[in-house]
Amino acid sequence: ACENVGKWEKSLQLCNIMIQCEVAMDTFTFNAAISACEKGAVWESALQLFTMMRQSGVELDTITFNAAINACEKSREWETALQLFGAMPLNNIHWNTIAFNATISACERGGAWGNALQVFSLMAGSSESEKNLPLLGAKAMVEMNMITFSAAVSACEKAHECEKALQLLGAVRESRFLALQGYIACLH
Asked: Residue 10 CB: number of other CB atoms within 10 A?
């Protein structure tokens, strides 16, 4: 409930009360608190909860990582977002579109356009990304969306990489065309 109304302070108070009363917190409780911190753009509190969750032995899941990465993205903490993103496969958690988009956006917003494009390349399945981000090693099979392309094009713009931005825009056009072809094929 605290997450939905953006009351991150109340969420943290509730967590502290639960800890003081020795009430066990589960994945759902931690995720709600981390998400509340994300919505309140208090990344440090989100990471404290993330660390507490890990130390407590509570299972981390995709939602845990996505909320923590999103909290970093909102605060332009691209290095931490990238570390969390890289830790996902190490924790047997599969990347999803949300994790990629938040990491690309965090890098873009933090001025690390090169890293944003490397994560984008990883998402696109580029072999070039494996050389540049060896810690991430795993192949990604995740669907891109307009948020993905928008963040990557914005990173190119900030880096004055017009040629790369045009290539990305061409890829958007191509993907829309292929999606339209698939839709038309389904009609027949």
From this structure: 15
Q: How far apart are CA 63 and CA 78, in angstroms?
A: 18
Residue 158, amino acid: K
- Over 60: is that where the pLDDT of 136 sits? no
Asked whether 68 and 102 are in contact (CB, 8 A), the reply is no
Look at residues 29, 40, 114, 125 and name the one whose alpha carbon lies nearest to residue 79: 114
| DSSP secondary structure code for residue 138 in this structure | S
Please state whether 159 falls in left (phi above 0), alpha (psi between -120 and 50) or beta: alpha
- The total of other beta-carbon atoms located within 10 Å of residue 42's CB is 18
What average pLDDT score do residues 136-162 get? 73
Q: How far is CA 99 from the centre of its chain?
A: 3
